[in-house]
Amino acid sequence: MRTLGHAWYWLLDYLYVAYWQVQGFLFRIDPSHYRGPELTGRPVLLIPGIYETWQFMRPVADLVRKRGSPVHVVPTLHWNTATVASSADLVAEYLEEHDLRNVLVVAHSKGGLIGKYAMLRRDPSGRIARMIAISTPFSGSVYARWFLLRSIRDFSPADPTLRMLGEQLEANSRITSIWGAFDPHIPGGSRLEGATNVVLHSSGHFRIFGQRDLLEAVGLALDDKPAVPDGATSVEPAPGDSAGRTSRRPPSRRGGPGARSAAEDQE
Length: 267
Description:
Structural class: alpha/beta
Helix content: 25-40%
Number of strands: 8
Strand content: 5-15%
Number of helices: 8
Radius of gyration: 17 Å
């Protein structure tokens, strides 16, 4: 039953990403729509994952805008197929060109690796304050080694850049890592030592963007509140956070194939 449930989440994940990729291609939105003069909060920079554009992260962009913060994207990332280091250069250039400071990065998958690289090696002025990383393979993915494409093999646990990022811990306390109970692409999860780690009840690598508990967790992180959102299985605050470690069993939900078994996998 567990295998069947996981296969179901693979299918749902790809249906979700296919839908949003088509939406992004057919109905392109000008990102300046998210940077109106009335938005005076902390600037937020979106960094999508590989083969994604910022429009895949529109549910988060909408949330950020509703909270009064401008949303920035890096157009030169295109489909985000360059190396992590090269992409971090583009992020740093954008921050400097627009003179953004006290920036909160919200990143998905590979975007979290780019964000951490930028924090460590491309941000001497300290423009990036914090990062919220969603479904980021901080420890790599065991599946990456089976791919021929360099852009995918970069996620192998043996990749030199990935290993360097894993060894450098100084930025981790400024990172909140959020991931689903079961991630089809990162079976080992996205736990990052020294960071605030949030495990959701929902499963998926892509489709969690459409889940209420993901948006609630992002909202709490935007407010610097490492509390347990509804539907999260646990939160592990960064060292030194007064909240301490908190966990609870997620509320039961009907109509979610395999949802119960995915949550139980984490216990």
